User: What shape does this take?
Amino acid sequence: MAVSEDASPRQWAWKNITPQQWTFIVIATLCFAALLILELIPNTKPVWLGTKAPATILSPVTFSMPDQAKFEALRLQARIHTTPVVKLNDQGKLLEIIGTELNSLPYDVAAIKSPAGLPEPLRTRFPQMTANALKYLHSIIENNQFPQYSQQIKLLIGELRQWPVIDQKTLEAIARTPSVSIIVRTVSGTKVQQKRIQLNQIGVLDTRGQGFRPMVEQCLPEPLWNTVSAFLAAKKTPTFILDPAAMAKLAAANQAAITMPQMIFHRGEVLVHAGKIITPSDRNILHAAYGAWRDRLARQNPLALWEHLLGLYLLTCVLGMIAAIYIGFRIREGTFRRPLAPAILLLASAVAAKITLLAGLATWIYLLGLAPILLAALILVIAYDQRFAMGISALNGLLVTVVTGENLSFFVTAFATSAILIFCLNEIRTRTQLIRVGLLGALGAAAAVLGFGFSRTPLTQAVPLDWLYAARQPGSAILFDQAILAGTAVFAAIFVLLGLLPLVERVFGITTAMTLLELSDTNQPLLRRLAMEAPGTFSHSLVLGSMAEAAAREVGANCLLCRVGAYYHDIGKLLKPGYFMENMNAGQNRHEKLSPAMSLLIVVGHVKDGLELAREYRLPLAVRDFIAEHHGTTVVEYFLHAAREKQARETLTGGLASQVNDTEFRYPGPKPRSKETAILMICDGSEGMIRSMPEPTAAKIEGAVHQMINKRLMDGQFDHSNLTLSELTIIEQSLVRTLVGAYHGRMPYPKAVPVSRPA
Assistant: This one.
């Protein structure tokens, strides 16, 4: 037995957890796990193009990195300086045709006596046939010197294969290169030969054949120089052309031979000045510097990265446990609404800030990372209270600062701005009020950024060399940018809240003062209908609104909620307005024809009917509470008295009458669960008693109000309303003043005295 008794409290502790608490534990655990996963994502801020350097960043170590820009420039120079390559123009077998035509030339002109006798085909091919050339060609045949002539032609063809003659277009392409030589590429069978020659050794194709003249003079006798040179020029075809494939291959080989140059940065050297727009080169340098620093750190302490992650995890765990404990205490109070919402808001703020960094918007962290924190603070102060909102906002700022790796300036700005918004926004009555609070919050955020930044300004010109501290001194321009972003974040949170306000009210089951002010407008459809169909009830509701508002103001309750709740508390009477005294004409009482039980159903039913109308017109839950609780579980005394009189009559006449129990004549409730609904109950009962008095005086009013409050107190109607006895006394005094002012006595008007008219 002893063992079971010791174990039972522990088992009972687990069994005592409600489903709502289990749900909170599960989802809070998931949110906490998500925060830990966020920590696994590298926290280094990527450097993105087009952003401003937040500070003058110095090299943490001496390191080298490939100079990609210089490497590409060298590769470009290597390609530009590639020596042009020409190859033999083998289109149409040009040299074979030239050799054949020159070898047959002595036989072709053997019968021709003078150049004028050349046939047209020969004249076209040999436009400068001279008499000396004819005489020499004839001598070749006459002296049987054709073998020697053929050998000379063979030498000429060989020279044409070795020494290029190019056209003007190819020459211009070669001239555009900085090279002073070209490579002549020839193919002999399967063997490829290349040789480099100077540009002045290249022949250029022209109409007179000057490009071929040196080779012709070297291989042929003088009589044939002009004739053969003109013959070669008449072909209008260069013997060599550019070889793009060989040039591309040579350029690739030259580029491959280029080694990657290195840039060396020494420790303490300025990498990027504060405010400089990051270029691709700057980004590469910063990434290389960070990598070199990480490598050095890893060599010095191989466990540094794990220690860093462990530290972040421990911080996250501590902050998460504080948040869970803080929310848990509020859950134990039993009236805490939506316990999961604060945990989700914490996670959402951290995720939004992390996404901002991963999206390359690190310089916008004071807008995109700060705005979710401020929005969460605004939602919390509206949904809960200032103390709770302040605590969760402080934890929220710390968590986001840890997750994103931001410095203390970010946390100070988030905490200070959240505090300003929370303390200045106790309730939202108008949109103008939100704008004023937003303006004040924006000024506070900007002041926090500038104040923290200027306070960290170094007093000397010495710049620290440590990588961890090198970026902690942003320039003034960066500070002003951050201040503007922080101020913009406040207005962004305000305007997003305006759009989300109906959703926030519905999710948390709350009603803001702005919504209450809209509902207090008598032009609202339900109030306008009440004024037209049940004018007595409408007038009664307006009077109760003034009374409840004044009493609530005296005890520090929500006076606006009291007034609006009073306007709508009797809307259930719209379905049967003629059965309620304030809407009856004098001398007409429909209940006289009904039994007390039936009358009771009609009167009590106005609570249920009112709740149905409230749901139909989508009234907030806070207003519905006034409809359900303004009578609590009080007794409908009029019909209870009527039922007992009927029972007494039936008993006297000898009939059998069942015992009348007052529990059958009570409203369904529930009892008032807030100060505001309890105040309305008191006002409703007091106003009804005073209205039924024939001649209400101050003393009578005071006695009636005191009697009514005592009756409700002894009936236990205020057990769940959190009203104290001192507050009941204050409410009583307020109601007496209001009712005395409303039902004060008036001096009787004098009787009319007949007045004679002058003649």
